[in-house]
Structure formats: structure tokens, C-alpha cells
Amino acid sequence: MRLTFTLSLLSTLLAPALAFLTTRQVYEFPVGTWIENLAVRPTGPILVTTLSGPDVYQINSLASNPTASLVHRFPSGHATIGITECGFDDFYVVVGNYTIGQQTIPPGHQIWRIKYPPLKPSGQPEVSLTASIPDAGLLNGLTPLNAKTILAADSRRGAIWSIDVTTGTSKVVNQDPILAPGSAPPGIGVNGIRVRGEAGGLVLYFTNSATATFGKISIHGDGTPAGAAVVIATAATGTGYDDFALDILGNAFLATGPGDSVAEVKRNGKQRVIAGVEGSTEIAEPTSARFGRTLGDLGVLYVTTAGGLGAPVGGTQKVGGQLVAVDLKGLVGL
Hints:
- This protein has 334 residues and is mostly beta strands.
- The chain has one helix and 24 strands.
- The protein has a four-stranded antiparallel beta sheet, with no helix packed on it. Strands 2-3-4-5 form a four-stranded antiparallel beta sheet, with no helix packed on it. It has a four-stranded antiparallel beta sheet with strand order 6-7-8-9, with no helix packed on it.
- A hairpin with a 2-residue loop joins β10 (139-146) and β11 (149-154).
- The protein is globular and about 45 Å long.
């Protein structure tokens, strides 16, 4: 009895210390820059999109003194939003007419390709237009479905688009009510999306910012629903869920937006904050997350932030959009 009590008390006292992981600010942009999403290149550098401008930057995250260099400024649109890799060092980016704080979003979303030369990863990429999707409401998160197809979350329509990157054709493949934005501003429904192959087939994982939920839907090979949608977890009061990363076990690491933190959600729905804290600029309004891909950043989760432009930290504070590295090697079981 005494030993059990002692161990239980020790576990309780240590739990908070074990839960919060070491973070490192890799790079901070000037104040007024909103970093919306990221993709990690096979060789280590990180591509980031900017909701505050039609740009994609590359950050040499493994350097001793990381810097950001402009990869491309797109001639159309006001912002770059989602980004995903579909093929080795072959990326697709949402370019849209969204302006921060804007409630009415003009049509004109496009998908652009950023393709790096296979034998010269340090070379300049080829940039080309893949598709125009005039009927989209607000294209947001992207994920590959197969070698020639990507899926795009439409946050305003509460829908999932399928885009053939070889032909540029697109269509809505899922508009389950669980993806809907609701009526309250800013009207952002389905946000981040990921496709994962599991024992029963393909599963689409998603967040809905309007309902602050994280869920999943079994899908067919063409992206259409193969089963009922399931809510896995709901964000803590006063926070939310933006984009996220999945580990090899299917556990999710979610950017909490106004929560200024990263939450881990296990496959059974249990969740906890593992890095950052509400009201701190350590991870100021996180927007997305991805894992490192090299031996130099194994076990590192990279997180982008809006710097408080959408939800000021502590109600008043804004910083530049950030790329933050979270060391997951100290993570213990939930």
C-alpha cells in the first residue's frame, strides 16, 4: 500500500516535467509574416508557405545559423497556403487570393508545382502551374493520395477536392457534414488533412477548425468515403486544431493555434500538451507540423507559427512567424 502510494505520487509529480519537451527556435521571420505550412525536403531543408504573401521560402534548418531564402514569389494570388510532396523532391502548393482578416475570399485558387532536379538537389527548382480551381472556396491543407493525385481541404465549402497533377483536372470527392465550417466567423471548417494506409485500407485524418475536432474517415482509392466519419479528439477550451503530423504508429501531433502549443493525440483519443504553453511566444500561434527526415533531425518535429497575427499571444503580443524544432526523444507514454 505504501509503495503503491509513493509510486503513484511520484508519477503525478513528474508527469508535467516529462510532458513538456525541449524546443529550439530554428528561424523567425520579421513581424507581420504568417508562416502557414511546411514540407520537409528529403535532404533536410524545409519549405514554408506564407499566408502574408505569395511566397515560398526554404530554411536550411540543419545549419548552425539557419537562414531563409526565397524559392519563388508567385505572380498570381496573395498567399501561399497548403504544401505537400507527391514524388521525390516534388512539391505542390496552394496559391490563393486570401488576405489575413478577410471574410470574403475572391475565387482563383491554383495549384503550383515546385520540382527540384533529381541529380542536383541544391539546384534551382522548376516552377509550373498544375491546376486552376475557380470553384474552390478556400483551399487549405494538402496531402498525396497516390503518385498522380493529391487531395485538398476546402475550408469554406467543407469539402475535399481530388486533383490529378498530371492533367490538372479536379473534383470534389467528399463533403461529409463533419467537414463543414459552420456559420460563425471566420468560417474555417476542414483544415489539415493526411492520408494513411492502415490494415483496413486508406484513412483520411483531418482537423476541423470550426468545431476544434480531430477525426478520421475511411476512404476508397479515389478519395471518396468508404465509411462513417469518426471524431477522435476535441481541442481544449480556448485552443483549437490547425494542421498536424502523424507518426508511424498513427499518433497525431497537432498545432493548437491560439493555444500556443503542440498537442499529442494518441490513436485512442487521449491527448496532452507536449510543448509550448498558452500565452507564451515560444510557439506563437502554431499552424502546422512535420517530422525531420535526415539522420541529423531524427526525432524532431518542426512546427510553423503565425506569430500571433491571427490570435495575439496573451491577447496583445505579436512576433514574426517562426519555425520551431521540438525534440520528441524525451517523450514518454501517455
